[in-house]
Amino acid sequence: MTAMGGRSAMPSPGRLGLMEPSARGDLDTLGWSDTAAVDRLWALSRAPDPDLALKALVRIQQAQGDAGWAEIDRLLARDRRFRGRLLATLGSSDALGDHLVAETDAWRLLLEPALPTAAQARDEMLAAVAAQPEPDAGENLLYRAGVSGGEAIGALRVAYRNLLLRLAAQDLAPVVEDEPVLFLPEVGGHLSDLADAALTAALAVALREVLGDDRYTGRLAVIAMGKCGARELNYVSDVDVVFVAEPADNTSARLAGEMMRVGSLAFFEVDAALRPEGKRGAMTRTLESHLAYYERWAKTWEFQALLKARPMTGDLALGADYVAATGPLVWTAAERDDFVTDVQAMRRRVEALVPDGEKDRNLKLGGGGLRDVEFAVQLMQMVHGRADEALRVRSTLEAIDALIAGGYVGRTDGANFHASYEFLRGLEHRLQLQRLARTHLLPDVKDDPAMRWLARAAHVRPEGGSDATAVLRRELRRQRTRVRQLHEKLFYRPLLEAVTRFDKDSLYLQNEAAERQLAALGYAKPQRAVAHIKALGSARGRRGQIQMLILPGLLEHISDTPDPDAGLLNYRRLCDELVDADWFLRLLRDDGVVAERLMHVLGTSEYIADLLMRSPDVIALYSSGASGPKLCEVTSEDVVKGLAASVRRSADPRKAIAVARSHRRAELARIASADLLGLMDVTQVCRALSTMWAAVLDAALEKVMEATSKETGAPAPARMAVIGMGRLGGGELGYGSDADVLFVCDPVEGADESTALRWAQSVADSVRALLGTPSADPPLEVDVGLRPEGKNGPIVRSLASYRAYYRQWAEAWEVQALLRAHAVAGDPELGLQFLHMIDEVRYPAGGVSSDAVREIRRIKARVDAERLPRGADPTTHTKLGRGGLADVEWTVQLLQLRYAHEYPELHRTSTIETLDAIEEAGLLPEDQVAMLKDAWLTATRARNALVLVRGKPVDQLPGAGRELRAIAYAAGWPQDEAVEFLEHYLRVTRRAKGVVLEVFGG
């Protein structure tokens, strides 16, 4: 032996990876300080955590005594396989080290070359509690323990830990000659066998605890669910079970509950929450009762859980009957009306379970984690397993292989997916073995020692000059990125390539299977969807290549929307419209945010989709800028300036209005997109819509006045202003609102008043005609119905005429209408003069008379009785329904009429701003103001959502169904919470109606 250098030299603690200051002393304690121990030292250095292994060895030596340790040390010196198993186990698992210290004979289990079979494991567990089979048991794995209580639980815990020790040691051992290699599916299978054996013994103890020596005459089957049912269990995992009993009586329930208690104390958490009705349901049911529940009440996730159901212990014949009876139900779940929304809800629930700080560290629930794989694979099974029985397997890895074999997934993609799942599950096993704790959290990437331990425990090898820690970090990023694309890989790429025949060698998915897949993803007309996909993916040249690249991701985003059929159709229409715009597909390819947002919009809003067909440049604003979404970087004021400048450059009024329409169209698309994507709140939306309407009116008025003066060759004989009324005056326009206005003129000095009025009438008529010209855009309806004398009065009046009318003839409803009057276009000075003039009318000294209040209440009662459309539901009509917009606005306006003379802060045209002023003035309690505001905002948001979804003005919310889901989604609610959205609307408006009855009704 050489003194230095070679393998036989005595290595230093540092070279062995020992970092603890006490390491040298510990080596001396073990007698490993000379060259005779060099093989043991180098083996120790290969342990995942040499310090942890060394500390455990010292504790084992102390527990064994001199003679015992001498025997172990001799075996460590001469038996390479034993040495590898023991040191790998001690360096990987603190908990198994504790077990070897406490159970002084347990180390001998690591000498055995083969793992026990399922039957042998069961026999060992039963022997631990001296269990004997029940008489005439047959296939009924029913045993009665000879011991009970704490003695039984202690014995079971030791026996199970011994079995776990043998499996873990072989799993963790370094790969050496003659040492069997355990692959992930084998480990999961062995762990499931151990769980079966453990719960068979737990049931034996339960029989002793519940019945003593009395015979059990019933039948009880324990069904394994989840990972245990699929025989892919983790080292530390809840074991999900369901109980079937004949009869399902108190005795069977007590047996089931006691088995769960014993199992949870001795081995692992035993959970029966997957049973019908969950934790609220009966612990045991008959087979008939199970079937009745699944056929009538079960949700999609419950059928998904049945995918993995397996008879585990107890009466195996009854368990087999259960699986045979419930199995076919799984394959019809995808035909249910609520299948897609249930699936989307499950995905959201999974994502919501992960705290923000753990999303990157959670191997199970984080992005690109295990649940992503399992969810996607199970969904594919449920979709295609109806027609292909080869997919009816329990294990995730077996299912991936079956999907590859059936052509539902490409061979390369499937193999990569398989490998990523095995890699992540392997890391999960190592994390759980460390302390035998149920965990899925990776160490913090900055925690080098923890990452180094995990890399070594997972047999990650250094490469290319990088240490194992760097390799593990890199591999984690690669694997999770690959899994993060699982939906594209599993759902959309094969589907796309199937219908376009892009890669015949790797895929065999036919149109019929593609249609099934699309139907399961929410497409109501899958045949048409296949045609759209084929047309898009088969485009010639560069466009077709880009479409093939981006379509899988786009299809995924579209499938998450309320109406995938409309979304795909709208995308195809948009591509046809922009066939020569190379920037469009490049933008979708290069900016994933734009692609996701655009698909969200196209699958939700017909209103925005139609606007984007004619204003596609807005799509570029879907990307994110330096300070946030570009949709919000543009301001309404900037748009108004651009509109005015563009209109002034057009001499022809018709062309000028066409330019104004173009600006308005783009601005509507921007506002609606920002609204739907949650980037603007409802008051911002209403304000922006009102600003745009006012700008178009102002531009139209200016251009018509200019053109009229040119035609006559004389200057304008009058000034003109447009007064916004109703929602326009309040700055609260919705997508479907008309523009209520008054036209006011004032003759210039020296002009004849009748001539000025005729001229102003001509201008107003031209403005209304130009704006009302039929167009594909949302209509520009200018409504003058609130003018004095209504439909019988002149369209335009002079300022003096308005003053005379309002002072002498104004009725209560006309005074009320003036509360929302605001100058929006034309001569600003004239507009201000008009507002000062009507202030005397709408805010009269001393308030309005009691007769006027009675008249307003009478009119409101008549509106409620006569104006609600025939057949409309008064509880869900957003404008005229109970607690809807009209109720809130009339209540606010009555308070203004009664108190605005006393409280100047009530001199506002906005409903929301006025409510704030009412609260500040103390005219209503804070809670009542909050109810009115909540109702107004809720009804406005719902009304806007109706237009976004349907593409036209609508006031009535629909009942449950696809349309309600779309409207809820457009209003900012998850699709699967459409019913909750409607209940929220009803609750909020009902409360507001109570305030209205109290305040408005007096």
Automatic annotation (TrEMBL):
In short, the EC number is 2.7.7.89, 2.7.7.42
Q: Enzyme group, top EC level?
A: transferase
Q: Positions of the region Adenylyl removase? A: 1-495
Stored InterPro entries: GlnE, GlnE_rpt_dom, NT_sf, PII_UdlTrfase/GS_AdlTrfase
Domain (Glutamate-ammonia ligase adenylyltransferase repeated) ranges: 139-320, 596-836
Keyword ATP-binding (UniProt):
yes
Entry annotated with the keyword Nucleotide-binding: yes
Reactions the enzyme catalyzes: [glutamine synthetase]-L-tyrosine + ATP = [glutamine synthetase]-O(4)-(5'-adenylyl)-L-tyrosine + diphosphate; [glutamine synthetase]-O(4)-(5'-adenylyl)-L-tyrosine + phosphate = [glutamine synthetase]-L-tyrosine + ADP
Q: Where is this region: Disordered?
A: 1-20
Where do the PII-uridylyltransferase/Glutamine-synthetase adenylyltransferase domain residues begin and end?
Answer: 345-491, 873-993
**Cofactors (names):** Mg(2+)
SUPFAM superfamilies recorded for this chain? Nucleotidyltransferase, Nucleotidyltransferase substrate binding subunit/domain
Q: Which superkingdom, per the lineage?
A: Bacteria
Supply the alphabetized keyword list.
Answer: ATP-binding, Magnesium, Multifunctional enzyme, Nucleotide-binding, Nucleotidyltransferase, Transferase
Output the Gene Ontology terms for molecular function: nucleotidyltransferase activity
Positions of the UniProt region annotated as Adenylyl transferase: 503-1002
Q: Which family does it belong to?
A: Belongs to the GlnE family.
Role noted for this protein: Involved in the regulation of glutamine synthetase GlnA, a key enzyme in the process to assimilate ammonia. When cellular nitrogen levels are high, the C-terminal adenylyl transferase (AT) inactivates GlnA by covalent transfer of an adenylyl group from ATP to specific tyrosine residue of GlnA, thus reducing its activity. Conversely, when nitrogen levels are low, the N-terminal adenylyl removase (AR) activates GlnA by removing the adenylyl group by phosphorolysis, increasing its activity.
- Protein name in the entry: Bifunctional glutamine synthetase adenylyltransferase/adenylyl-removing enzyme
- Native species: Gordonia caeni
For this protein's source organism, the top of the classification is:
Bacteria, Bacillati, Actinomycetota, Actinomycetes, Mycobacteriales
> Its gene?
glnE
